[in-house]
Specification:
The chain is mainly alpha-helical. It has 6 helices and 2 strands; from the N terminus they run H-H-H-H-H-H-E-E. The C terminus is likely disordered.
Length: 200
């Protein structure tokens, strides 16, 4: 009987889906900032001078880029994180190198942990600055940025699971009659004796 990759457990699915959600509040806050929504900044503060012809597109772009990288976490629990989509030129249909994907995701987990860990440690002092929002605006900003502390740990947990799940099996694009389901489980439809190749 054909070997199959281990299914993705529910906790890993939830953790992967949580990453874009923990990044979303800060992105929405920056969008509101860029649009000039009053967020509690004092009159005369640079951050009260929005919309801005240069900085507004910057904060919009920063939010979109952050959400894009957060969305890539889903690839660690989906088939497109094991086999490149066929619409991709040159590499479409090929196996995603497990070690390369794990390495990139690990670097990302370390980076966001360090960045937002440092931000969290200095948050009290930053919010005490005269040009920071105060009162309700400070609560809104803190609530928007606090979930980012979970980004690194969530990504790290999903990355470890991805590596452990993939290290014993590699899904080949040459498998005849084998289809990959949404959670990375391979099912055989034509050749019952076709097994997934072992990664070296």
């Amino acid at each position: 009987m054909a070997a199959t990759a281990r299914p993705v457990p529910r906790w890993a699915e939830w953790a992967a889906h949580a990453v874009p959600l923990v990044v979303l509040p800060s992105g929405l806050w920056r969008f509101a900032l860029g649009l000039g929504v009053p967020l509690g900044f004092a009159e005369g503060s640079d951050l009260a001078d929005f919309p801005h012809p240069v900085v507004t597109p910057y904060v919009f772009g920063l939010s979109l880029v952050a959400e894009f990288f957060a969305f890539l976490t889903l690839g660690l629990v989906r088939g497109w994180g094991e086999v490149f989509p066929r619409w991709m030129p040159l590499i479409g249909g090929r196996d995603v190198p497990a070690l390369a994907a794990t390495g990139v995701a690990s670097l990302g987990a370390v980076a966001v942990s360090l960045i937002f860990g440092a931000l969290g440690l200095g948050w009290r002092d930053a919010m005490a600055a005269p040009d920071s929002p105060h009162g309700f605006g400070a609560l809104v900003m803190s609530a928007a940025y606090l979930p980012l502390l979970a980004w690194g740990p969530l990504l790290a947990a999903v990355t470890v699971h991805y590596y452990l799940r993939r290290r014993g099996h590699s899904i080949s694009d040459n498998r005849a009659g084998s289809n990959t389901s949404g959670n990375g489980v391979s099912t055989t439809t034509a050749s019952p004796d076709l097994a997934l190749r072992r990664t070296r």
